[in-house]
Amino acid sequence: MSYSERNRAGEEGECKESVYLESKSVIKNGLIASEHLTIDESLLVDPKHLYIGAKIGEGAHGKVYEGRYGDRIVAIKVLHRGNNSEEKASLENRFAREVNMMSRVHHENLVKFIGACKDPLMVIVTELLPGMSLRKYLLSLRPKLLDLHVVINFVLDIARAMECLHANGIIHRDLKPDNLLLTANQKSVKLADFGLAREESVTEMMTAETGTYRWMAPELYSTVTLRQGEKKHYNNKVDVYSFGIVLWELFTNRMPFEGMSNLQAAYAAAFKQERPVLPEDISPGLAFIIQSCWVEDPNMRPSFSLIIRMLNEFLFTLAPPPPSPPLSEPDNNEQKPAPATSDSAITEFSPRNKGKFAFLRHLFASKRTKN
């Protein structure tokens, strides 16, 4: 690969908010074609300053390599170009959309965007996390379960990242453990891969069947059977549904809809209203959070702001984790109290949210009685 022979040099440029330059919509076969997007020049890096090393991952839309940009180690995502003019135009649009969105959102639980290249390859440069994906981490532990405090801390990280995206009008659409990366100390996670993310204002122009079936909200493909290429409107609550599945997966360390194919899982969720089975020993508080996230009506699902409040409230009810053994013998027998964390704060629900979730609790209680 020609990039691998480039010299290392240069400095990271300041990331500025991207500007969308859109052409007029084109009607093709009775459908609205994707609008053309471009990338602000301030977001581009000089390919001469990039060095691409070993491949560390691969997905449907590109490959990820470890590399260098100037004097820092980075992750370099090289996207596919396509095989014909129509496919190339679509992939270039996807690339521009991903770059523009990544450049305008900044949060400690989002992988940091550094820059992009358009030629000779479509490349996105981000920080490199030395940890593995959450999917690989769970597989390495299976069938062992994660400590409940670890689960709650992980999902709080995820919820905060998603809250940031939604506050900026972005729907991720592909939230799952494969797109969540652990930090080096394995104590926190960051959300990566905006390949399927879209602005909420244009969701009515998006294809419905996106994401990965086991984690996808049923409204993405239910109600009616869509003909290929048809569009369907939905909102950011599709991410809340996926979050509920991820929370269940972290708690159980099992694959959602085990024993089913991807299509069988989609059919079960959308047309039979099935959900992964909650363990019998799960606490009512955690069960309620999970179930409220994957309730059938998207409008009844909580926002990520409210999810964070519920998780903090639940965390406050847990006994503190056992202290880590000291590296050396202490000078005296006194033990220092564990430091308080901001996650233990309780935030009161508004009267409106209290009524809303009282209804949900009653709904879930009725379902358990019927079953």
Question: Topology, please?
Answer:
Layout: E1 27-28, E2 31-32, E3 50-58, E4 62-69, E5 72-79, H1 85-104, E6 113-117, E7 122-127, H2 134-141, H3 148-167, E8 170-171, E9 180-182, E10 189-191, E11 198-199, H4 237-252, H5 262-271, H6 284-293, H7 304-317, H8 351-370
Antiparallel strand pairs: 1-2, 3-4, 4-5, 5-7, 6-7, 8-11, 9-10
- CATH classification, class level of the largest domain: Mainly Alpha
CATH architecture of the largest domain: Orthogonal Bundle
The radius of gyration over CA amounts to 22 Å
CATH fold-level assignment of the largest domain: Transferase(Phosphotransferase), domain 1
- Work out the helicity level: 25-40%
The overall average pLDDT, rounded, is: 78
Shape: globular
By secondary-structure content and strand pairing, the structural class works out as alpha+beta
Q: Classify the beta-strand content into a percent band.
A: 5-15%
Q: How many domains would you count in the coordinates? A: 2
Biggest sheet architecture: 5 strands, antiparallel
Oligomer classification: single chain
- The ordered H/E elements are EEEEEHEEHHEEEEHHHHH
List unreliable stretches of 5+ residues: 1-34, 202-210, 336-349
What can you see in these coordinates?
By secondary structure, this protein is of the alpha+beta class. The chain is built from eight helices and eleven strands. The strands form four sheets. The protein has a five-stranded antiparallel beta sheet, covered by helices on one side. Strands 1-2 form a two-stranded antiparallel sheet. It is globular. Mean pLDDT is 78; it is low at 1-34, 202-210 and 336-349.
